[in-house]
Amino acid sequence: MGDNRKILVVGGGISGLTAAVEAAEAGAEVVVVERKPYLGGRVSQFNHYFPKLCPPACGLEINFRRIKNNPAISYHTLATVESISGGPGNYEVNVTIQPRFVNDNCTGCGECAKVCSTEIPNPHDYGMGNVKAAYLPHPMAFPFKYVIDPSIVGTDEGKACADACAYGAVDLAMQPATLTFSVGAIVWATGWAPYDATKVDYLGLGKYPDVVTSVMFERLAAADGPTGGKILRPSDGKEAKSVAFVQCAGSRDENHLPYCSGVCCLASLKQATYVREQYPDSKAYIYYIDVRAMGKYEDFYTKVDQDENVTLIKSKIARVSQAPSGGLLLEGEDIVNGGKVKQVVDLVVLAVGMVPGTAAVKPELPMEYDDFGFVVSSGASGIVPAGCVKAPMEVAASVQDATAAALKALQCAMGR
Amino acid sequence: MDQKIGVYICSGCGIGDSIDVESLSSVAKDEFKIAKLETHAALCSDDGVGLIRKDLAAGDVNCVAIAACSGRVKTDVFNFDPMTVITERINIREHVAWCQPVGEEDTRMMAEDYIRMGITRIEKTHLPNPYSESIDKSILVVGGGSSGLQAALDAADAGYSVTLVEKEDQLGGYMAKWKSTVPTSPPYQQLDEITIQQTIDKVVNHEKITVLTGTTITKVAGAPGMFDVTFSKGDPKRVGSIVLAAGWKPYDPEKLQHLSYGTYPDVITNVQFEEMAKAGKITCPSDGSEPSVVAFIQCAGSRDADHLPYCSAICCRVSLKQAVYVKEQNEENKVFIFYKDIRTPEQSEEFYKKVQKDGTVFVKTDTSKVTIGEGSERKLCIEAMDQLLGEPVMVEADLVVLATGMQPATLDDPILNLEYRQGPAVPELKYGFPDSHYVCFPYETRRTGIYAAGCVRQPMGASRASQDGTGAALKAIQCVELTSQGKAVHPRSGDLSYPELFLQRCTQCKRCTEECPFGMYNEDVKGTPLPHPTRCRRCSICMGSCPERIISFANYSVDMIGSMIKSINVPDEYDEKPRIVALICENDAFPAVDMAGLHRLSYAPWVRFIPVRCLGSLNLIWIADSLSKGIDGILLLGCRYGDDYQCHFMQGSELANTRLSKVAETLDRLMLESDRVRLEQLAITDFGRIPKIIDEFTERLAELGPNPYKGF
User: Fold this and answer.
1) A2-98+176-193+355-413: which CATH topology?
2) Distance to chain A for B509, nearest Cα, Å
3) How far is B308 from chain A (nearest CA, A)?
């Protein structure tokens, strides 16, 4: 059967990783390609999962170990799919690998970073903090290898990084490379991006530094984030003890994302626990249209709602502005109690929706999309979409969906 | 295997600057019988690994101790055939050089102890001897609804023989009773046709699928790869793994008297309404007339502490669908939906908007407080507090539909009737749904080889339930494939070890048979454990539970950890160098200690970390071993336990804590303070807490003074 027993998984986030390990442990050979310099995708940027409030790094650690121990799985980071030809059971895929400027000799010792003084906005922290231009993407990064930012390649500083490495791991001459894979099936799991909430201009993102998105807030609460896990106002570093969560920031809105992203209510309930746990005298306000805590997650909603310092208010926030007394002022209608919402808080978190990876870039594959860019069907048995490219979904649903995708890919690739 | 141990010490990444590598070499050479010792400035380089490969190829060495970086990194480089080579990674980088002062005596002593413990671990390790039995690779699917049919079809399409069991005489489950389903394709406005018959036809005609309808399971004996299944009729069968897709049942409406169910014939459930719609015409049961006003009451017995506290996820969408039926029957008809929150996630928001546009009236209220009574002209009168208007509303309707929730079919019927010592049912987490680490491993149950799919797992709609069947089929396939190679399924995927029992010394105390989270052991009449190795997930909790220490794995044993503890060099009390043994979860606490090193966090040099598979594998003898050796304190770092447990073996850290409560007795016998043993719950990201935990424990031990057994 040759190479067509192989499955290519595009995307190394939780869906792609799951599809890869599940297919490989069922007997397939799998290649994962990931655009970023590490595997794990967006979950590696989360502080906790709801409703267990446990760190994603724990489950990722297990999956990484499943990859390390399994010779049937290989992976490539900084890799994007260039072209795909062929058909079910017999695809040829060209993948471009961007230079990392660090080769496999890297031991993760960090000597290159010591001599590097240039800093770049840390992509892992959505630019909220800086990182050296010679950097480990994050402490738990897998693979555990540094990256040299292209901005210092060709400079004296780049050379200093190379000189500092005792293991010959810094390779400034590294060029983009193209790899070709012959595979039987392709799992498309390119994930999602947070909606650009600067487009919801009345909510103040981009205008006020203390308005952040839900994904940024995860980094503000994370021990390896820009504040070391302290929830601080970006504007002045003050402890953010009153935090407003604005649900449907662009979601369920004809002018932005008409659909519901399904996870944001639970994410904000979870984030309210970060604030409450960190500061006993804190308050969290959640402004919602409907609280959507589906299935067993209702228990989590019930639990968080029992905290009298977490207030849920049915309201569509109409305006966020600078309060004269300092802080940010939220205004809207209080739909259940009547009257107006006028609340001043330290920090505003916009619960932003999920935009499928396939909204911006549609691969040259026979997949069909809805108006929002979600994949609604695959035109070929060998092309299997998985995870948030199909619909917004939480981690457990992504794992479920990707496990199913693994079997569909296996059926095609193994010719059985 | 006649062990020939090669010790390879790396001095790179600051190790050589921090620790005198020569002294480490001396420890290895002088204190152990080793075949080979090499040091290298970059052991992970081609040159460095080449040294090891050369020794392996020459047959000079068959066990490799690599004293270098954490075993979590460079795994692709230090990668030797696990069937013929025992490899041990000794972490003197993250756990020593990166977290301790350069060149200090205590730093060196710490590294020396890691060398001792690492070599000792090798000495106590055996090459894997995988459990091999004749494994049946066929799959049993229990339940012929959306999930079960899809699971059967997908497993069969992948080449596996499938037996599908359905208790009803027909396949199709609830789906076959529905008129249509909620929209699943753009523009998400049109109801989907029921296509279950096509799936049924494919299943029935599939050469790899045997369908048993009107059949229940009377017994499942055995283990993955060798389940022996007995049915209510027909011959027993042997199967390899099981998809449990037994579905759901509607919440009992008889319990909804507060919503007047049973009082008025025209108060019906969403299931009754659907069956009526499927039959052709929606009528009022009281007189057979066609209703012109229909009211839906959402969360009828759901999200209600007195009934089902959870949300059944699909009822909002079902009522929207049923509102469409009412309008289809007569577009003049009026529909009211009383709701707490409308839950139409994802693209189904579009469907919600359509139903709103088409004139259905939505009333936000606490639906558990709605009153339904007699209205005018044989109508029903619904009174509620409209939370949006802030005033009471009254609606008269001909027909009231209670949107009732789902309960798992396993709630009061074990269904599989497992012949397991721990009981006939798959253990539940809550509300009758199976226990699993449901974020990371949604399909797993606490019975290896049995995977839950569809609404028996959690409430879900039809399209997701069908998809869920596919995923569970993959897990079932994976189980038989890995089991056939003697390998564990997740989370220790690929582990070739399994528990081996020295039964001559068994005292029938039953702790192993009771404590295994996965029900690995049955018992004979005397209480002697009967292991079923293919049920095992290799957590070693049984090993920790056994007071006689008769349970071992080829690569993990009570003796191994005990010997590692005993290999630690414990200075006498006048040296004022206390010693702490820290037994830590290898998946979470171990990487956290690595992260502490990466961040160059420093802590007392007295601690010696020993990774364990799960804190649940803690055998109390290790505490006795430590204390009698003169170790001053024992620190246990495990995952959070309780309702939101993080342990990927579900109960490991909790069991360790339970066992510790019993350790006081041991300590009393030794005339020692129970404060010498401390358990902390530590998440993988809690690396920042590690110095504080160790330093505080060190302070407490200083207060207690040296272990009086020191030097004995």
Assistant:
1) FAD/NAD(P)-binding domain (3.50.50)
2) 33
3) 10
Handedness of CA A36, A42, A48, A54 (dihedral sign): negative
B59, amino acid identity? G
Q: Measure in Å the smallest separation between the Cα of B86 and chain A Cα atoms.
A: 14
Residue type, position B170, single letter: Q
Q: At what angle do helices A395-413 and B462-484 cross, to 10 degrees?
A: 60
Q: For chain B, list the domains and their CATH numbers.
A: 1-123 (3.40.50), 139-247+409-484 (3.50.50.60), 253-405 (3.50.50.60), 557-712 (3.40.50)
pLDDT of amino acid B709: 86
Total number of residues shown for chain B: 712
The residues of chain B scoring below 50 in pLDDT are none
Residue A1 is predicted with a pLDDT of 39
Q: How far is B491 from chain A (nearest CA, A)?
A: 7
Residue in B309, B646, B688 nearest the CB of A302: B309
Chain A hits for B688, CB-CB cut-off 8 Å, are: 223, 228-229
If you write DSSP's letter for every residue of B279-308 in order, what string do you get? HT----TTT-PPPSEEEEEEEETBS-TTSB
3-state SS record for B305-367: CCCECCCCCCHHHHHHHHHHHHHHHCCCCEEEEEECCCCCCECCHHHHHHHHHCCCEEEECCH
Q: Which residues of B are less than 8 Å from A296 in CB distance?
A: 310, 430-431, 433, 438, 458-459
Class of domain A196-352: alpha beta
Mark yes or no for CB contact A55/B685 under 8 Å.
yes
Indicate the domain borders of chain A: 2-98+176-193+355-413, 111-164, 196-352
Predicted TM-score of the model (pTM)? 0.97
At A4 the pLDDT is 66
Q: How far is CA B709 from the centre of its chain?
A: 41
pLDDT at residue A415, rounded to an integer: 67
CB A71 within 8 A of CB A30: no
Q: Name the closest residue on chain B to residue A261, using Cα atoms.
A: B346
Give CA separation, A119 vs A113, A123, A171, B666, in Å: 10, 12, 19, 56
Task: Please answer yes or no on whether B482 and A222 come within 8 Å at the CB atom.
Answer: no
Q: How far does CA B216 lie from the centroid of its chain? A: 28
Which of B43, B195, B685, B690 has the highest number of chain A CBs within 10 A, making it the mutation to test binding with A? B685
Cβ-contact B27, B112 below 8 angstroms? yes
Residue of chain B nearest A228, judged by CA positions: B688
- Test B685 with A223 for CB contact under 8 angstroms: yes
The sheet carrying A6-10 orders its strands as: A73-76, A29-33, A6-10, A185-188, A383-385
Contact residues, B window 600-639, toward A, CB-based 8 Å cutoff: 639
Contacts of B313 in chain A (CB under 8 A): 294-295
Residue B195 is predicted with a pLDDT of 95
List of chain B residues whose C-beta atoms are within 8 Å of the C-beta of residue A52: 439, 644-646
ipTM: 0.96
**pLDDT of chain A along its 416 residues, tens only?**
345 679 999 999 999 999 999 999 999 999 999 999 999 999 999 999 999 999 999 999 999 999 999 999 999 999 999 999 999 999 999 999 999 999 999 999 999 999 999 999 999 999 999 999 999 999 999 999 999 999 999 999 999 999 999 999 999 999 999 999 999 999 999 999 999 999 999 999 999 999 999 999 999 999 999 999 999 999 999 999 999 999 999 999 999 999 999 999 999 999 999 999 999 999 999 999 999 999 999 999 999 999 999 999 999 999 999 999 899 999 999 999 889 999 999 999 999 999 999 998 888 888 999 999 999 988 888 999 999 999 999 999 999 999 999 999 999 987 64
User: Which of chain B's residues have a Cβ under 8 Å away from the Cβ of A51?
Assistant: 644
A223 and B438 in contact by Cβ < 8 A? Answer: no
Task: Please give, rounded to a whole number of angstroms, the shortest distance from the CA of B397 to a CA of chain A.
Answer: 25
